[in-house]
């Protein structure tokens, strides 16, 4: 019995990495929210948002193509396409450079060395590629350390700053970048054990066509994930976006962690085996997880109001809290649908589904941009987008597999 428990725990080591990094990141944000001014914390939150976008957007969606068209031949040996590999490298360099120019131009009040920003952006983009490599190879712990390592490093740096009593915005931003670079170096050292076999089983045209629509998917995902922060910053200023970022890290982050872990595990599962029955069962289970997590967070919400965490006024944002829970449930429900769609869907349905989602998402968010007057309306718009996007992907996937089984 003891051996079974130990084996079960060892099979979920990657989850422990996710949870530990989330706790570290939560504590870092609580500490910085107390020590920095509202404006400084808002600027810090936008820098974090920038690197989060770089992580998602840096590969232009090609990590999905890599997952779809690459296969593990044996342990530490991955069969992939050389053309796809070159596209990934090119995307990392180009997107990192253009994005760095955007940050320097748009947020010129934030003092960052341009060369260091580009280097860090390249490292952050590369981390997603390294993460994809190790995930396909079933090195789940290493993959999660690459995705979340900088948060753990930042936590220990923050403890040092607490001892030294030094909390300056520019130094903290520099230390965030240093944490990302250290995590990247760790990934490169681990990559030495891997070997790639390049084959041409997938044509360049197929890679390019699917790549375009994976890019559309990534663009849509980025817009949905980060539109709230940019809309709030644009309409209400850096101080308010700092408050929202803080609330998101407490009440939305747990959903994102669970969402990421489910998707992280299910992609490899669905790549090896997919049935509609199992797919629907997993979706129902994920929805239950979402409601259970909401109950825990409601208890936690009232607990922190009772005992207090710092000086933040949580009651001021009680409606935002409720909406963040609903957004979180929508994310959890989607967590098993996205990885299944990415590895199972054919190019024809991929084109139609991703284009439809992009058009609908942009339409809703443009209306929000022009007419939203409160944070609550912005979050409500995102909930609608998440639900519509998830249901469209689900319908296309089930419809395709039903037709295939019928034939």
Characteristic key phrases:
three-stranded mixed sheet
Short description:
The chain is mainly α.
Shape: globular
Average pLDDT for all residues: 83
Tell how many strands the DSSP assignment holds.
3
Largest sheet: 3 strands, mixed
Helix content: over 70%
Number of helices: 15
What's the helix-strand series? Answer: HHHHEEHHHHEHHHHHHH
Distance between the termini: 46 Å
What does this structure look like?
This protein has 407 residues and is mainly alpha-helical. It contains 15 helices and three strands. A three-stranded mixed β-sheet has the order 1-2-3. The protein starts with a helix and ends with a helix. The mean pLDDT is 83.
Q: What topology does this entry show?
A:
Elements lengths: L1 H9 L2 H23 L2 H20 L4 H8 L1 E4 L2 E4 L1 H25 L7 H23 L3 H25 L4 H23 L3 E4 L5 H33 L1 H35 L3 H32 L10 H17 L2 H8 L2 H25 L3 H32 L1
């Amino acid at each position: 019995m003891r051996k079974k428990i130990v084996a079960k725990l060892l099979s979920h080591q990657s989850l422990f990495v996710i949870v530990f990094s989330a706790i570290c990141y939560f504590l870092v944000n609580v500490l910085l929210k107390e020590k920095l001014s509202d404006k400084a914390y808002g600027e810090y939150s936008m820098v974090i948002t920038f690197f989060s976008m770089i992580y998602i957007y840096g590969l232009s969606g090609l990590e999905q193509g890599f997952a779809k068209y690459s296969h593990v031949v044996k342990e530490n040996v991955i069969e992939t396409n050389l053309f796809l590999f070159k596209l990934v490298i090119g995307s990392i360099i180009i997107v990192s450079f253009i994005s760095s120019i955007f940050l320097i131009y748009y947020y010129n009040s934030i003092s960052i060395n341009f060369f260091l920003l580009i280097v860090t952006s390249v490292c952050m983009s590369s981390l997603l590629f390294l993460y994809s490599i190790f995930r396909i190879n079933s090195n789940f712990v290493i993959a999660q350390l690459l995705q979340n390592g900088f948060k753990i490093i930042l936590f220990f740096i923050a403890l040092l700053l607490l001892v030294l009593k030094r909390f300056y915005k520019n130094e903290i931003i520099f230390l965030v970048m240093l944490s990302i670079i250290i995590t990247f170096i760790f990934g490169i050292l681990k990559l030495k054990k891997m070997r790639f076999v390049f084959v041409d089983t997938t044509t360049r045209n197929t890679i390019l066509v699917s790549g375009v629509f994976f890019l559309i998917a990534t663009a849509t995902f980025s817009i949905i994930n980060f539109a709230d922060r940019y809309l709030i910053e644009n309409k209400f200023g850096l101080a308010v976006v700092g408050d929202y970022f803080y609330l998101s890290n407490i009440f939305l982050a747990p959903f994102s962690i669970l969402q990421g872990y489910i998707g992280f595990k299910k992609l490899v599962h669905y790549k090896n085996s997919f049935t509609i029955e199992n797919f629907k069962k997993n979706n129902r289970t994920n929805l239950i997880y979402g409601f259970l997590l909401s109950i825990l967070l409601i208890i936690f919400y009232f607990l922190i109001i009772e005992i207090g965490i710092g000086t933040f006024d949580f009651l001021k944002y009680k409606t935002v809290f409720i909406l963040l829970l609903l957004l979180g449930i929508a994310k959890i429900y989607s967590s098993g649908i996205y990885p299944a769609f990415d590895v199972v869907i054919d190019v024809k349905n991929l084109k139609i589904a991703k284009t439809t989602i992009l058009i609908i998402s942009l339409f809703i968010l443009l209306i929000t941009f022009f007419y939203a007057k409160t944070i609550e309306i912005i979050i409500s718009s995102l909930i609608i987008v998440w639900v519509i996007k998830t249901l469209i992907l689900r319908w296309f996937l089930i419809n395709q597999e039903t037709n295939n089984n019928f034939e």
